[in-house]
Specification:
The complex is a heterotetramer, with two copies of chain A and two copies of chain B. By secondary structure, chain A is an alpha+beta fold. Chain A is built from four helices and eight strands. In chain B, strand 3 and strand 4 form a beta hairpin. The chains are: A alpha+beta, B alpha+beta.
Chain lengths: 147, 81, 147, 81
């Protein structure tokens, strides 16, 4: 299990390859990556991501451990950035590995739902008419009930 | 104890962290105490449904006791991922 | 939409980065990769993958189009190898992109279920006591009913 | 018409493709005809539940008509992915 909370960009491809290569005896890898979407009209200057140093690392590690407990996984990797990101930059990624595809899919889906609503990150859109904090969606909170 | 504010809580109150001496027994009592200080606090804490609290870096609820607590943080619902 | 049926290895990381970079205005990428699992005791010499040239390309393209019809996706990429593969080699990958994570996850999951049971590939394990054709699993066929 | 065999169907019958002249109206009739040829065909087609058929590269069922068909393929359930 590996958790990285960082300001710096990461290389999705390099991480995907390194993660896959260090697995052995597993048949399935699922990778999710979240990307800064521009606003309609290309008005987004930056997506500012604030977080709670200390709590972030603890809560993300706890979410990863919960996934390892629920499914029979080879490994879990979570990288999440903070700071000011431009449109099309990668915000975060998760990777899970398992013997069978269902476990790899479900655990990655689970990780995303919990990272969305239970890890202390807050997004602020800078630029455009909607400048301001991104509001949490009711459906994201509801998604937790699936698990 | 340390009280931390994030996102629009931090912006409305104008600081990200402060030391607070309090006799409040629960988070809710602390919120009431802070709200009485100044209008910016009252404004920040006005809509409790859109505020979350963490005690010593664990999510908690407003009835949680504060005895022995070192750090309380207030923030809006999280938007990670 | 891109479908590649090939004998040659592919570079998961390079494909993941190229796929992500050619998206714009999307927020979520999901990538699945399937890897040759060794048999217990390290007895697998090779996984031989046979396919039906012509029908393979058609049926995989059809599955990809079905995903594009069902969900609001940015793009779909499917790469599937055939021939003799060694343990830990990558067999295949799918990538999907969408504005929202649920669509990216569901469509990748859907693609995998249909590639598993509706694309004309057959796996044969060479080496070890179980040498022979991999049997289709009842649960893989049942998984299609989810969609 | 061309008849193709894959995976263990191909191995049991011993060839991957052959030209077949047939008056069979449906796939099922073609299977019966082939099964009568030689024991290796009979063995390959013995368990119909574990055989799938494609007509002109589209999955079909055993009652599908063969009129105008150029290519019929028999194979076990697929194991892709």
């Amino acid at each position: 299990m590996e958790v990285r909370i960082q300001r710096e960009p990461f290389d999705l491809g390099a991480e995907a390859n390194a993660f896959s290569e260090r697995q052995s005896g597993i048949g399935a890898v699922v990778i999710f990556s979240g990307i800064v979407r521009d606003l309609p009209g290309g008005e987004l200057e930056a997506m500012e991501i604030e977080h709670y140093p200390g709590m972030t690392e603890r809560s993300v590690a706890k979410i990863a451990e919960e996934a390892l407990n629920r499914w029979s996984l080879g490994d879990v990797l979570i990288i999440h950035r903070y700071g000011a990101l431009k449109p099309d930059e990668m915000i975060m990624m998760v990777a899970t590995s398992a013997s069978h595809r269902a476990e790899a899919f479900q655990s990655a889906d689970f990780l995303m739902d919990f990272l969305k609503s239970r890890a202390p990150f807050w997004k602020k859109e800078i630029g455009g008419p909607r400048t301001g904090w991104v509001e949490a969606k009711r459906e994201d909170e509801d998604a937790l009930d699936r698990w | 104890m340390d009280v931390l504010y994030f996102a629009w809580m931090r912006e409305r109150i104008g600081i990200s962290r402060e030391k607070v001496e309090t006799g409040a027994v629960t988070v809710r009592q602390l919120v009431e105490e802070l709200s009485c200080r100044e209008p910016r606090y009252a404004a920040a804490f006005a809509d409790m449904d859109s505020i979350r609290v963490a005690i010593d870096q664990e999510l908690a609820d407003f009835d949680a006791p504060l005895a022995g607590v070192r750090e309380v943080a207030f923030f809006p619902p999280m938007t990670g991922g």
